[in-house]
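Provenance and format

Records in this collection were gathered into a single text stream. Each protein contributes a sequence line and a token line. The two records reproduced below are adjacent in the stream.
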Amino acid sequence: MPDKKNIAKPQPSEVPASSASAAIDVFLNSARAVGPSATAEGRPRLVFALDATMSRQPTWDLACRVQAEMFQVTETVGGLAVQLVYFRGFNECRASRWVLAPGALTDLMTQIACRGGQTQLGRVLRHVCNEARKVGVKALVYVGDAMEEPVDEVCAAAGDLGLLGVRAFMFHEGGDPTAAAAFKEIARLTGGAYVRFDGGAPQSLAGLLRAVAVYASSGVDALNRLAQQDGDAQKLLTAMGRR
């Protein structure tokens, strides 16, 4: 049976798989065959979570192009294991296996189309809490533009995440004030950072993701060293309240 790792309990009925869903199944099944011990054992772990509702298609395409840089910048210091989490449509929220190769996530992401639906950030945070308890997670990167859930429930999950030592780096596209307030509070509760970015400037998101990857793989000292010559690392440290 294909390895579809749903964060929530399976629904009583499911829409028949499309060709895109079949491609996702192939990827997830292949990742399972490799086995977690062969791909991620002993590596620092980062969850890369994306809002894949309909408004996010341009930023999803951008994330596909720049996410590989998260891996590349950490190769010289031992690498980073990354798990992709996304939500879209009606109650669909999925997570990949932990992988090391940037091409693996790129191949998966290019098969996923955004669909209309509401945000499911609370489910993402609860999933990361579960992963942190099981295998340990250093950081969460979240990219989104909206917040359509009870903020108190989401912040309660963020508080749990903070107690587990997982910093949430909340990347916000656009100017929605509700999302801004919620993302800032999640960042505060976890000791992470809230950063606005322009989806029309891919170099900005790429640089910020590189900076988060350095923190996740090697800690604040390494991020401080990078910030001596990298403006995006400086921006991230400022957002974390360390400058």
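Adjacent record:
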Amino acid sequence: MFCPKCLSEFEAGYTRCAECETELVESLASDVEEYTELVTVFEGDAEAAAVVRGKLESVGIEAWIEREGAQSVFPSLSPGAVQVRAEDAEAAFKALADVVALEEDAESGEQA
């Protein structure tokens, strides 16, 4: 038997947690997600990574920025790798194709 509040384990026969006075349950729900393979679909500075993640999420693709929230002296200059689930990688690259095209247009405009 387990307390769902403080996660203490009790011997059979107990019905309430002595600490929390909460009803005990037979087993605790697992909040642990299965391992998911992630694929990097973008690498750049943190600000660009945030924009890319926003673009992906706007089309329904869940995305993460690697090491987001890590302490850095200059957070906006920190590298940002945007990752998606492996099964979403193809759709993510398609969704980002217009972003890459815009970047290339901007770069070619600067050189002219």
